[in-house]
Specification:
- It contains three helices and two strands; from the N terminus they run αββαα.
- It is mainly alpha-helical.
- The chain has a two-stranded antiparallel sheet.
- The longest helix has 10 residues.
């Protein structure tokens, strides 16, 4: 006995996003409805990912003195040898507060 599904034989119509947006604009939606044209997302509950200031890899660690993020022991050794103006430059790139000098 075979089970047949009537919807399995039908082909779904594929519509590009441009077509969906034009359809949304023509329909009468309430002003506060979330659509493709005007979506206001609430803040994310997922914490932001942190990346190493030196290599750009995902960083699990932060240097307590300079507040730079790093991912490996080699990067930590490099951070310890950096002068304060270079550390300030890295923090400025990340738009972080500069606690050093």
């Amino acid at each position: 006995m075979q089970h047949t599904n009537k919807t399995a034989n039908k082909r779904r119509a594929w519509r590009p996003l441009k077509h969906l947006v034009s359809l949304e604009r023509s329909l009468p939606f309430p002003e506060d409805a979330a659509t493709y044209c005007r979506i206001e997302a609430p803040p994310s509950f997922v914490p932001a990912k942190k990346y190493s200031d030196i290599s750009g890899l995902p960083a699990l660690y932060t240097d307590p003195h300079s507040k730079l993020r790093y991912s490996t022991a080699e990067e930590y050794k490099l951070i310890q040898t950096l002068p304060s103006d270079i550390v300030a430059g890295y923090l400025a790139l990340r738009k972080a507060f500069n606690p050093v000098g």
